[in-house]
Amino acid sequence: MAKGAYSIRDDIREWFSSADSVVIAGIGNPIRRDDFVGMKIVQDLKNKISEKVHLIECETVPESFMQDIVDLKPSHVLLIDAAFLGLKPGEAKLVFPEQVANFTAVTTHVLPLRIFCEYIEKMTEAKIALLLIEPENTEFGEGLTPTVQATAEKLERILLELFSA
């Protein structure tokens, strides 16, 4: 990798460096192709990672899991979702709640993720980040596109490196 090049692996490792208790929440719609990527990653991590990591499948309603997350008293909350960031399809970026306002139409969820993050942060004092993946296709249909599937697998490997059981 070229000097100064963006490394999602380095960003994730650094962000989790002080983690005690972790929530990883997958967000997405199973019938909107690449919109499912967050859910797919969480499903694929089940039974493979440390007990200090709590996996939550939020589907399209992360707000329905706010109390569950608060009750777990995490030090870190990572939300994984597809988002239109203007990147190449399959590119991933670690974004923080205060940056979400800078992106137009990040996700398609009912409660804006920034408000969701602010609530969780206030109730838990946890560090919160969003791992956002640029979708290629969010039309109705099942299965990730090959580009986004490859990114999902890469991100799963990174998370397994950090949190393997």
The poorly predicted ranges are: none
The name of the CATH architecture is: 3-Layer(aba) Sandwich
Question: How confident is the prediction overall: mean pLDDT?
Answer: 90
Distance between the termini: 29 Å
Structural class: alpha/beta
Approximately what portion of the residues adopt beta-strand conformation?
15-25%
Give me the side-by-side strand order of the main sheet: 2-1-3-5-4
Shape: globular
> Can you give the helix content as a percent range?
25-40%
What is the CATH homologous superfamily assignment? Answer: HybD-like
Q: Can you offer a commentary on this structure?
A:
- The protein is an alpha/beta fold and 165 residues long.
- It has one domain (19-163): HybD-like (Rossmann fold).
- The protein has six helices and five strands, in the order H-E-H-E-H-E-E-H-H-E-H.
- The chain has helices spanning 8-15, 37-45, 66-72, 97-100, 113-124, 146-163, and strands spanning 22-27, 53-59, 76-82, 92-95, 127-133.
- The chain has a five-stranded mixed beta sheet.
- Helix 2 (37-45) links the parallel strand 1 and strand 2 (53-59).
- Helix 2 runs parallel beside helix 6.
- It is globular.
Short description:
The chain is of the alpha/beta class. 35% of the residues lie in helices and 19% in strands. Strand 1, helix 2 and strand 2 form a beta-alpha-beta unit.
